[in-house]
Hints:
The protein has helices at 2-20, 38-51, 68-71, 115-127, 147-155, 170-185, 216-224, 236-243, 256-274, and strands at 23-30, 56-60, 80-82, 85-87, 89-92, 95-99, 134-140, 161-166, 190-201, 208-209, 228-234. By secondary structure, it is an alpha/beta fold. The protein has one domain: 3-Layer(aba) Sandwich (Rossmann fold), CATH 3.40.50.300. The strands form 2 sheets. Strands 1, 2, 5, 6, 7, 8, 9, 10 and 11 form a 9-stranded mixed β-sheet that branches. The chain has a two-stranded antiparallel sheet with strand order 3-4. Helix 4 (115-127) runs parallel beside helix 5. The longest helix has 19 residues, at 2-20. The protein starts with a helix and ends with a helix.
Amino acid sequence: xKQVMQAEKLDQENRLKERMSLIRHKxxxxxxxxxxGKTSVAVNLSYAFATSGKKVGLLDTDLHGPNVAKMLGVEKxxxxxxxDGIDPVRVLSELKVVSLAFVAQNPDVPIIWRGPMKANAIxxxxxxxxxxxxxxxxxxxxxxxxxxPLSVCQLIPNVSGAVIVTTPQDVSILDARKxxxxxxxxxxxxxxxxxxxxxxxxxxxxxxxAIFKKGGGEKAAQDLGVPFLGRIPFDPELVELADRGxxxxxxxxxxxxxxxxxxxxxxxxxxxxxxx
Length: 276
């Protein structure tokens, strides 16, 4: 019995390595705490990569709050299956998505699992999904530095890097700094820090107000010696579109926030090109 279990474990690990080997860049989007807009960043970056002609997979590993499907307007879809594994939901021709939200029978019922069950679920999401050949796999990691982020970082071979999302205020920056150190301890390159909700530009008078302060993310990046990827201003339309299941970046509007997302996308691509 023990030999059978060991053989199954080895087979699962080999499948995971084989699937991950078909993916050129594996990016983990992380945050030190919840509520900083990490998932919004992961969704919009994935959408931006896909609409630029790249083949993209978006994996939602936030088991207790899987919001990716809602933000992409595909929460009523379900995962398919084949002899080759789990088939992801296709949002665009170049964008595939997997989330536990697709298998939840009732979105109001919480997942109450201990660490080993969560680690096994993440391993299955990584090893059993038929991603195919991708340019980017963007992983929306749970906030913090606990079991789930640790499992994600340790299970994915050759992680290209981590993107750390924070808001400007001190309480968020403190946790973001810990997340940078977390990535370093796991030998994961830090692609950089994004300062989200950085200022608010009034749509009427165009005056900018620093609702949550400004500059904390950039200072943390300087202190820690990691790239600063950019500031994304708070935009009420981003919230409205997310609730409607429409990625903000798809609006096509020329706003400070859309320009900021494009700047962040470019900075990430430049980092990955240099670090080949």
